[in-house]
Every structure is written in structure tokens, then in C-alpha cells.
Structures
1.
Amino acid sequence: MEIRNLLVSDWDKVKSIYEKGIATGNATFQTSAPSWQEWDSSHLAACRIVAEENGKVAGWAALTPVSSRCVYAGVAEVSVYVNPQQSGKGIGLALLSELVTLSEAEGIWTLQAGIFPENFASLRLHEKLGFRTLCIREKIGKQNGVWRDTVLLERRSTTIL
């Protein structure tokens, strides 16, 4: 497996993996994948990666700024998605680990993740890499007319003080 920067040419595969996550109902509140332009403009340019196995994109990870205010310039939200056919191979762990390294190289001191409590695999993955649970955000949003909770996790850099 190779971890490398996400390229524009990867978008169709990245979008497909994202759509598979959306279909589970436990990965995001999003109901459809955005266009490349929308996705590109909302994610940090320096922290976008894919895991490639046998020449095929098996997963991706990226960061989104949590605010446009300069005081929060070092705080970003994590997205990690793995093709369900590739789950259980350590791809998510490799992606998130590399994302942590890249984020610190970019001066990001806090990573956040909002995860549905039913998404046990994602919660465990984040905890393995030092994310801690801050709270349960009860009824934070509706999905298909049903209120959903999310677990808010945070990882504070140990190198950026």
C-alpha cells in the first residue's frame, strides 16, 4: 500500500468511496457527494491523501478548516473514508496516521472529528491515534428526518505547543 497526495485525477474514485460511506447512513450527514470544485474549495490543500493498493485508490483522508477566523487557523476537522471492500486491512489507520503527521507539519495543533456513535470502527480508529472524546452532541442534526447524535473527538498535537 502506498500513501500519496490526492490528485484531481483521483476525484472519481474518491467520490465513489465517499458515496459508499454516505450510503451506510453512519459516516456523514451529507446525502450526496459534492462536485470536485465544491470539495476542493472546502478542504485544506496541503492535507489530502489517498491510499493506493495495486494501483487502485482504496481510501482517502483530508482536512477541513473548522473556521475562517485566524485564531482557529490550526484547528481542522478530519475525514477518513475507506472502500468497504478494503476494510480491515489497516488502510484507515495508515491514512489517519499520515494525516496527523502532515497536519503537524502544516502547523495544525488540533484535529477534530464528529462521528456517529454507531460507527464503532471509526471511533476505535481515532482513539488508537490519540483522539479523546470531548462530548456527545445530542440531536445535533437530522438525517432523513431523524435526529442524530455525534461523538465529538479531539486530538491535540504533542509537537505544536
2.
Amino acid sequence: MIKVKIEGLNKSFNDLVVLRDINLTVKSGEVVCIIGPSGSGKSTLLRCVNALEPVTSGTVIVDDIEISHPNCDVNAARRNIGMVFQSFNLFSHLTVRRNIALAPMDLKKISIEEADELVERLLQRVGLIEKIDNFPRQLSGGQQQRVAIARALAMQPDVMLFDEPTSALDPEMVGEVLAVIQQLVADGMTMMIVTHEMAFCREVADRVIFMADGVIVEEGAPEQVFTKPKSPRTQDFLRRVSHTA
């Protein structure tokens, strides 16, 4: 079953063309990692999937809903899509409990009791139950990002989008966030992950997409893309990141 279907997607900001004729499908339970140099359009692609950016042309379909259609009820469609950003975007004046419970109580109209049960279950899942009544400022960066993941999961999405979820973290905190994502992989969650963590990408991805200059240059199984890349552009990128790793 196809969860995400992108056809002929183009995105421009005034005269700047960011995405050019993107065609991509993501199947149920598939983990697609998107790699490439800065400015290649990776994050914009995710934002188009979540309708945070309107498309210039083309279609984006998630769970059989054309989210790119001008008349689409975007807020309703987004309830099936979880997104985790580079920055944690937690509400600083709310506790961890309230940060996670807010959306399901507001949008799904669940009770306080149901929300508390949901929050506790999710915090157990990300290993932070003891922080339930803390405020974001009392958490490390890695802990805040794990709370952000729990918050995204609170809406019980069918698809999870991760936009470089470890890029704002100190190196020693990266592992704890990647471990949570690996658990979601094991649980069979459908995911699109923009990442610069090549070893992680190679380990968890069913398919790797390499983007540059707004186009998909190459895609394939991790072993093929990382060990036998066909495009000189992919070869050059992987050579550069291996030298800086």
C-alpha cells in the first residue's frame, strides 16, 4: 500500500527554483532516508509533504488525500502526519505533559484522563517518564527532541517526517534520539527522514534518496547507494562526507 505519492512536484520561491519535477512514492512501513548537500531541497520536500509549503505545481498525496489540492482540508489531513523538526519547537511555558497532550485534547477531543494515559505511554516509549512534569528549559537538547518525537506520535500518525532531527544536538546527545527513531523503525512506522547521519541512514533505510540542486539524482537500497553509487554527483558527495566524518 502506498502511503505517500509525489508526482511532478515543483517548488519555487519567486525566481528561485528549489524542487524540480520530483517523483517519489513511499510504501506503508517503508523507511526512506533523504541525503544530499545543504540547499538541495530536502527540507522543502518534507514541508511540501506536510503542506507547510504550498507546491508550485504537481501533486502530493498522503493516505489517498491530495494534500496539495487548493481545496484540501490541510489541518484534517495533517492529523495523519507527524513531523519532527531540527529545532524542538516545544512550548516553553508548558510542562512536558501539557506539550504532548495539547494537540490530541484540542483536535481529537480526548479527555484529560485519556490524555494522561497517552502521555505516560509515549514518555515510557522515549525513556522520559520521569520528566513528565518538567519544563523544556529543564531538559537537555536530546531530551527535548525526544519529547518532540513523543508529541508528534501523540496524534497517532500514519506517516512520520523527520527533518534532520539531530542537527541541533551536541554529539553525545545524538545517539539517544537515533535510538528512539530506530525503535519506530522496528515498530514498522512509515517514515521519511532527512539526515546527515550516514551510518544511521545506512542502517535503518529501506531506500536512500540522494538529492542535489532540487532534483533526485539517485535512489536505491542503502548498499547500492553507499557502496556502488552510479552518479558522479553522488560519488563526490559521499567522498566529501566520508572525509569530514
